[in-house]
């Protein structure tokens, strides 16, 4: 791997090679979704705990201080909204010149395997990998399922992750599922776990993240279970203990309760 590519990738991880990416890109199809109405205010207390921030160029320019030390993963696909029929009809939204101008550490692209627009979204990934390889910029593929959340099983996610890796993604983001080790083992590049809709309890979220890490994920790209939570900073601290300190779910829950009691 070229030095620039390796340097950008390592900037996204802690010294342990693990990562906690904070995604706030949801507005690209959900608009002013609950708790991200004013993204700058939402992320202010959370950024010190994140290894990277995943967002669109619009939110980056309007809501993120350019003096931030937190590396940016730029979302570069879109083109639809939550009220459209098929969320998979995505195109590239952002040029390689813009990616370079914004000095980001990586880009993120959704790929909808099995959808009507499967071919188009795989080609979006391939095209961005072609452009990004020239400049040493890593591409994170997002295995997206749109509104079909029931697709999230090891067979489907294993297929989707492997295709993304074969297309040249340097990291693949996918949902946690039962038998997650099968997904990770068959994907030749690192896998990060997406959060999905908010869980009923903090422990439920902590437990799937812990299981995913035990089964080989290098970290998480988890948004709603943090910033939609009643206590976002305690949630982040708890999950960070699992990601970076090999904490058990019980350790993480204690950190959550302590941070909550401290009014964080
Ligand atoms: C949205 C995304 C998000 O980055 C991803 O879904 C992770 O966020 P969450 O934990 O809220 O699911 O790609 O399009």
Instruction: Report how far the terminal alpha carbons are from each other.
Output: 41 Å
Quaternary assembly: single chain
Shape estimate? globular
- Give the ordered list of helices and strands: HEHHEHEEEHEHEHEHEHEHHH
Strand order of the largest sheet: 1-2-3-6-7-8-9-10
Number of strands: 10
Strand-residue proportion: 15-25%
Which structural class should the secondary elements be placed in? Answer: alpha/beta
Unreliable stretches: none
pLDDT averaged residue by residue = 96
Describe the structure.
The protein is an alpha/beta fold and 264 residues long. It has a single domain (3-198), classed as Alpha-Beta Barrel (TIM Barrel). The protein has 12 helices and 10 strands. Strands 1-2-3-6-7-8-9-10 form an 8-stranded parallel beta barrel, surrounded by 5 helices. A two-stranded antiparallel ribbon has the order 4-5. The mean pLDDT is 96. The structure holds ribulose-5-phosphate. Residues 23, 25-26, 54, 142, 194-196, 221-225 line the site of ribulose-5-phosphate (5RP).
SSE blueprint:
Layout: H1 3-11, E1 19-23, H2 27-30, H3 39-43, E2 52-55, H4 57-63, E3 72-75, E4 77-78, E5 91-92, H5 96-101, E6 106-111, H6 118-135, E7 139-143, H7 154-166, E8 171-175, H8 180-185, E9 191-194, H9 202-214, E10 219-221, H10 224-227, H11 232-245, H12 249-261
Parallel strand pairs: 1-2, 1-10, 2-3, 3-6, 6-7, 7-8, 8-9, 9-10
Antiparallel strand pairs: 4-5
Helix pairs in contact: 9-11, 9-12, 11-12
The structure holds ribulose-5-phosphate.
Ribulose-5-phosphate is lined by residues 23, 25-26, 54, 142, 194-196, 221-225.
């Amino acid at each position: 791997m070229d030095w620039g590519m390796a340097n950008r990738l390592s900037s996204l991880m802690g010294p342990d090679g693990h990562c906690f990416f904070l995604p706030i890109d949801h507005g690209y199809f959900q608009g002013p979704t609950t708790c991200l109405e004013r993204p700058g205010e939402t992320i202010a207390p959370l950024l010190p705990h994140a290894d990277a921030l995943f967002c669109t160029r619009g939110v980056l320019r309007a809501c993120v201080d350019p003096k931030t030390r937190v590396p940016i993963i730029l979302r570069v696909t879109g083109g639809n909204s939550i009220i459209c029929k098929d969320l998979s009809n995505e195109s590239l939204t952002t040029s390689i010149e813009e990616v370079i101008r914004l000095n980001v550490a990586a880009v993120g692209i959704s790929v909808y395997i099995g959808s009507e627009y499967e071919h188009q979204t795989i080609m979006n990934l391939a095209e961005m990998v072609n452009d990004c390889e020239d400049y040493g910029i890593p591409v994170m593929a997002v295995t997206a399922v749109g509104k079909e959340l029931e697709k999230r099983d090891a067979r489907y996610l294993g297929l989707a992750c492997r295709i993304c890796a074969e297309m040249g993604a340097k990291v693949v983001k996918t949902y946690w599922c039962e038998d997650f080790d099968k997904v990770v083992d068959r994907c030749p590049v690192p896998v990060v776990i997406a959060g999905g809709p908010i869980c009923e309890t903090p422990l439920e979220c902590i437990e799937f993240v812990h299981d995913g890490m035990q089964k080989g994920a290098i970290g998480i790209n988890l948004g709603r279970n943090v910033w939609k939570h009643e206590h976002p900073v305690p949630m982040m601290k708890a999950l960070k203990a699992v990601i970076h300190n090999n904490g058990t779910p019980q350790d993480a829950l204690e950190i959550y309760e302590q941070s909550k009691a401290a009014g964080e």
